[in-house]
Specification:
Chains A, B: GO terms for molecular function: DNA-binding transcription factor activity; transcription cis-regulatory region binding. The structure is a homodimer. Chain A is built from 13 helices and 12 strands. By secondary structure, chain A is of the alpha/beta class. In chain A, helix 5 (78-93) links the parallel strand 1 and strand 2 (97-102).
Chain lengths: 323, 323
């Protein structure tokens, strides 16, 4: 085996036939959460490879910080807790510490936090951008401070970005519902504000359905009863497609559709937790893998910090599931 | 008016007759989220008082950091996102930046993070402790690094702690259900591990009901169908009291009780979000105020940083509601 080949967490998981979350747990010493057999197997694979905790040691020898900043667009989202846990699982196995900042969906806050991260000389930054300014991270790039974007693309063609396949998975899900006989989609989303995930998902709907309508809502001040006419919920050919889990759960809980098991699924959306599945076990939803997105972002960032990142890789896509 | 009296966010909210969340929004410039009248009133009150952004300026003049570390026991909990948002709302109005660490319910991780916070010379720390060691923060105390504990008490009688009234609000809720005719309580909780919030809530149940049983579950590997006999759910005199919201939601979604509106409420618990209320609008739950707990912890911490904290205040209780 070539000892110089740097393995990723996905390589190790594949070799061992376990999930990446299991590898992360192993790297963090949470051995009580797996069988002894799995732990022994992982230990062996890791000993045989160069997947060792050495990046931070190099960093500290250069008298640089071992803190990595993670700026989330809104920490109220379960999505951000999960990708942060994924980031930390990789960082801590290599001696780094992840710290979380909340830009609270506000571009002014975001730029203040970025200035602080820049000035305090963090080892690197993972950013879920609120701003869509392509020059957003230019200062970091010019100064060779490693940055990885997560979840959202700012379209500068320069930054390394870890996203999911928003367009494709939406298109795939919509084809399923088209085949079920739906002829119209009502899309319910927070204000789009040119945010790439929202733009791509809407494009995925429109690539399949000729008829769609868009409802932008502020999730903090939502009253579904005010919306009920717009939602067109009693039209059996109208699919409700909800881009944000909290809105989806409210809608599932507020309609009477779930009480009548013979009515086919008429509501779907993107989910981050198992809660929608508790409410509607037979429904299909689009589920992202935020933990794996975070773990991957951290691996790419560490590769940049240790200057091992091949420069031509600009985007990594972690597919979502529709099931 | 005495200009030397330092007002708290609660004082200002009381004077203005608005919520503390509104004051926080005002301090953070989110003026679009309140009426002009409210904004003008708050501006006037703040101008008349000494509630100004000066702490960080003093700090920076002393060449100290303006970063405050917040170590959460598990950032998957909506509770921690909310208290972090409360902390940040106060800190940022005074020029400080809050950063969030996740100890992942693990005492080893917690002590590694605390060591890092200590070594990197943060301005202060808000800690939701996992360990129950009364000596946990001795190093910080001895070195006069300001620390405030949140949510959980470590019983050292020394640290300033912001908690809710776990015992009293549980007792109050249990008296309500005793009056409804229940004669037994099944308590469902994560492993207690001597964590003060869990201990106090259980004591609150036992102060009212002679008969109670305790089920400790690991929320990551929960299968309610395996538990169904233990839960004794079909006994109309048995109340299910769930200490963790995610378990409560699973239980609400999995039982058929909600489908039959004539059956009186037989499940309650502590909630952090509105989701249980979406599922069961007529049920009563215990709701904490994590945003206000965080805002209060930040105020106390800032008072310590600027050495204005009266030394005799050791515990601040932010009451929960049962409604």
């Amino acid at each position: 085996m070539d000892k110089n080949k740097k393995l990723t967490i996905v390589d190790i998981a594949t070799k061992a036939g376990v999930s990446t979350a299991t590898v992360s747990r192993f790297l963090n010493g949470q051995l009580n959460q797996m069988s002894e057999k799995t732990a022994v197997k992982l230990q062996k694979i890791i000993e045989e490879t160069s997947y060792t905790r050495n990046v931070a040691a190099v960093q500290l020898a250069k008298q640089k910080s071992n803190l990595v900043a993670v700026i989330a667009s809104n920490i109220d989202e379960y999505f951000s807790s999960e990708y942060f846990k994924g980031i930390v699982s990789i960082l801590s196995a290599q001696g780094f510490i992840g710290v979380l900042f909340d830009s609270n969906s506000n571009t002014t806050t975001e730029s203040a936090l970025m200035a602080s991260v820049y000035n305090q000389k963090f080892a690197g930054m993972v950013l879920q951008p609120v701003s869509t300014d392509p020059h957003l991270i230019e200062k970091f790039t010019n100064d060779a401070v490693p940055v990885v974007l997560i979840d959202r693309d700012i379209g500068n063609g320069q930054s390394i970005t870890v996203t999911t396949n928003n367009f494709q998975v939406t298109k795939y899900a919509m084809e399923h519902f088209l085949n079920q006989g739906f002829n119209k989609v009502t899309i319910i989303t927070e204000p789009i504000n040119r945010i790439s995930t929202r733009v791509e998902r809407i494009a995925g709907v429109r690539s399949v359905f000729d008829h769609s309508q868009l409802i932008e809502v502020d999730s903090d001040h939502l009253n579904f009863s005010e919306l009920s006419d717009e939602l067109d919920i009693n039209n059996p050919k109208n699919l409700l497609f909800v881009l944000k889990e909290r809105l989806l759960i409210q809608l599932l809980a507020n309609t009477k559709l779930l009480n009548e098991p013979k009515i086919p699924q008429r509501i779907t959306g993107f989910i981050d937790t198992s809660m929608p599945k508790y409410l509607a076990p037979n429904y299909k939803f689009i589920q992202q893998s935020p933990f794996l997105m975070g773990a991957t972002a951290a691996e790419v960032l560490l590769a940049q910090i240790s200057a091992k990142q091949p420069e031509h890789i600009k985007q990594i896509v972690i597919p979502s599931k529709f099931e």
